Amino acid sequence: MKAVLSGVSVVVAGAILAGCETTSLADDPVYLRVQDLEARLIRIERVLDNDSLVQMATNLQQLQTEIQTLRGEVETLGFETNNAGQRQRDLYLDIDQRLQALEQGGAQPLAGVGSPGVAPPGAPLPAGTVAAGDQASYDAAFALIQTRRYEEAAAAFSNFLTVHAGSPLSDNAQYWLAETYYVRQQFTAALPEFQKVIDGWPQSAKVQDALLKIGYCHYELERWGEAREALEQVAREFPNTAAGQLATERLARLPQGAG
Known about the structure:
Blueprint lengths: L1 H18 L9 H20 L4 H28 L5 H21 L25 H15 L3 H14 L6 H13 L4 H14 L6 H14 L3 H14 L4 H11 L7
Helix pairs in contact: 1-2, 1-4, 2-3, 3-4, 5-6, 6-7, 7-8, 8-9, 9-10, 9-11, 10-11
């Protein structure tokens, strides 16, 4: 397990060097996200270093939540680096594969505790676990985004939210549904979809990204006051995150006196 996690740091370092080819690391949003991913993986590693089975049982749910959050961050990294070069795409795929291995049994189950994300047939799923059918449907929908089939992806994520209502992946599905509109520059249609993430899952790790994109949508629509309000909220509430950094950068690009 620790070997898997340690490998991520090596891959992350490679991605940072690759990113240097086109832009300054201090201004590179991909670099900032990679740094955030590495910090999260370090926290997981510290949990796994604890030899107490009792402590492991106590932290199992927290670990699973961290992994799910990391999956969302990895997805965002892959989406935003789609055009940044082959080595960055390789970084995304490698990290995603390692995290999937961690989720699917890298952590050994404790006595009386099932493997994370897996439940015996017919057993009720504990809160926060992802059913195999949910994951397969979600992955299929996300694969459409990766291949830029945005209209099909929108339909797939809409179907996921209907068929798998209540899934732990619903917040991510809603976010990527909104992204299918944003990437096609349908900013008016994207706005309410991003807002659904905030309203429906206020504790989700996707809230900061959804709020950032709300600011971006208003910016593209030249609604300077609404853009400033959303971006300032991101910078204020998430100051030490990639979203907070990006919000601050976009605020600096607002027209003088706007808002």
